[in-house]
Amino acid sequence: MPGRLHVLVVHEDPAVRERLATELPDFVGDSTTDVRVSTADSPDAVHAELERARIDCLVVSTEVADSEGQSPVSKRRTDGVPRVSYEGSTVADRDLDALGRAVYDAGRTAVGSLDHRALFEAVNVGLAVRNLETLELVDINQHYLDILGIDRASVLDTSPTDVTPDISGYDSEHAFDEVETAREEGDNTFTWPIENAAGDTVWIRVSLTVAEISGRDRLISTVEDVTRECQRERDLAAFKEAVDAVDAGVTITENDRHVYVNEAAADICGYPDAESMLGTGWSHLHDEAELERLRETVPPALEADGKWQGEVAIRRPDGELVSARFSITSLEGDRDVVVFQSLSEQKAREDELERSRDFLERTQRISKVGGWEVDLTTDALAWTDQTKRIHAVPLDYEPTVDDAVEFYAAEERDRVRELLDRCRSEGVPWEDEFRLVTAEGAELWVRTRGEPVIRDGRVAALRGTIQDVTARRTREDELERMNAELEALNRIVRHDIRNDMAVVVGWAELLREHVDEEGADILSRILSTGRHTIEITEVARDLMETMSGGGVETRPMSLANAVERELAVRREAFPHATFEVDGEIPDVAVRANPLIASVLGNLLNNAVQHNADDTVVTVSATVNDDAQTARIRIADDGSGIPDARKSVVFGKGEKGLESTGTGLGLYLVHQLVDSFGGEVHFEDNDPTGTVAVVTFPLASVG
Questions:
Q1: How many CB atoms lie within 10 A of CB 639?
Q2: Mean pLDDT of all residues in 413-429
């Protein structure tokens, strides 16, 4: 009868122990019985051996006693291990046969029968029996040994964590928690990794059960190799994760019902999540006319080729119609895999790309900036459309590098070639301006920029821009000419006009003793105006510096004096107009210079010249101590300034439709106020007219 039997022989004599260990197995059972004999040298060592391993039978001489004089017979009652004893201190040859039969019968009694042992080995799962408290291995079947890939002798002293690979989360603490669950609840099932003798990781499903065996509570472990199952689960999870991550809808239908839906598919079809779309069919997503079309076209294609592709109209639950491109592949079992993507998003991207291209094209046209690139592998030169427009060539023109250089003025070409060569060989970028002659013969100024494109550590291409800067260069030349003319005008004003006015004032002074009382008043006005003109010529230099971008010196100026003086001059100059002061002008000093007279004078002139002769001009002023500013308001009751012109009236050359002036007055006002650190703007007056508002910083700030 097949089976395994573990026998413990106890004797003080090593020769007896060795003989029984060697010869006794031949007398126990038959050739199918696997007998393993362990030995102990004293009864005191028996208990330790019983705790370490499962013993099916204890063989002991009747003369053997422990340190207290007791025979190991008593251990049977506590350990549940059957005892076979023999008389005397030796075993005769004739006694071995009887002893073997006794051991076999006792072993059969311990395990119920050797059929139970055969079953232990025959089951197609790994089985292990451990001490419930210490977890020491009591017994293990061959199938478990095969999973571990080691022999029985090597596994006896092995704990579960000894064969656990270094995988996060699978440690001794986790293992102890699983055992504790089994101890508390009686059983527990979980998955655990082990490392076999070959170093491979094997995943096992462990079922722990607490059961009584031979009078003792044992921890029985049943294990199955589920490595392939775990791998399939991981592969399936990875596949699902990958499918969920793709930017396309993926569904699997079975009998026209969705059994798998990824999140992208649910989103395209208008469902809140993938789960809510499970169980639906395509009949939920198409209008009747679309369904009819699909029924006529899809099944024949799937039957013939196993796949179908085309555009489909999806009706979302909210009623929105979405265009999508479908790719359907037929599977076994009346199942189909459908991969689809919203064409609405694609068309939106195409529209956005077209808008971007259009924006880039219009930007290039407006800024007159074109692009170019030279592929150094092929020496091919590419121009953008705007670059071709700058050169006045057709849009289908395909230039070469030599062609491009020839467009530059003759004296510029060597410099252009030098910059190209340095960028090509040394990777040196450039930015410079050159004269260029177009295909139509027009001469332009262009600003070109070039830089290297580095790939794999070498210059693989040259890339840059070209911009038509002719207008800017023309303006710069014009500005340079104007500055020269203004400087000449400044010399005339400061020298010739000043000298002539000084002569006029001088002769007028001599007339004081030769005019009567009525003439004295007229002479006084001539002298006042003349001196004012001389003062204006003295500050012409500051005005020139302001207009040319230079700084001007400022100093404290009396606001009240400046306003009163300019009002007096304007009352004389415009006798039909009315100039009033609302309240008092604060007696404060503002940061300015004598050209504050030009600011106030031009604004007062503007209030009268653009309106009727009987215009009423009202001047008021306030001080903001927190902001350290003074504000002048010059209001008229004329026709006012349209809103569209309020932001441009300070531009150079701006003037009213009926104005006969040069258009420089308000431009100079803005430039001067800005140079003082102040601000100026226009507002509507109530009920009609315009208010010029000027803010000056108080002198204490600067």
A1: 14
A2: 94
Give 346's pLDDT tier (boundaries 50, 70, 90). low
Q: Is the pLDDT of residue 602 over 70?
A: yes
Contact residues for 2 (Cβ-Cβ < 8 A; gap 6+): 32, 33, 114, 117, 118
Q: Are 71 and 83 in contact (CB under 8 A)?
A: no
Cα gap 25→5, rounded to integer Å = 9
Question: Could you tell me if 390 and 364 are in contact, meaning their C-beta atoms sit under 8 angstroms apart?
Answer: no
Q: How far apart are alpha carbons 373 and 379 in whole angstroms?
A: 10
The secondary element (H helix, E strand) that includes residue 631 is strand 629-636
Q: How many CB atoms lie within 10 A of CB 370?
A: 23
The token duo for 87 is 């008389």
Q: How many residues does the chain have?
A: 702
Residue 323 bridge partners (DSSP): 313
In angstroms, how far is CA 633 from the centroid of its own chain? 53
**Per-residue confidence (pLDDT) for residue 619, from 0 to 100:** 96
Most trustworthy range by pLDDT among 108-112, 299-303, 498-502: 299-303
Q: Tokens 């099932």 belong to which residue? A: 189
DSSP summary character for residue 410: G
Q: Which two tokens stand for residue 19?
A: 């003989």
600 has pLDDT over 80? yes
Q: Cβ(3)–Cβ(117) under 8 Å? A: yes
pLDDT digits (tens, 9 = 90+) for 89-148: 677 776 788 888 888 877 766 554 444 556 677 677 888 888 888 888 878 888 888 888
CB atoms inside a 10 Å sphere around CB 234: 11
Section 337-345 average pLDDT: 82
How far is residue 36 from each of residues 4, 24, 512, measured CA to CA in Å? 8, 10, 152
CB-based contact 102:85 (threshold 8 Å): no
Residue 609 phi, psi (nearest 5): -65, -30
* 3-class SS string, 546-581: HHCCCCCCCEEEEHHHHHHHHHHHHHHHCCCCEEEE
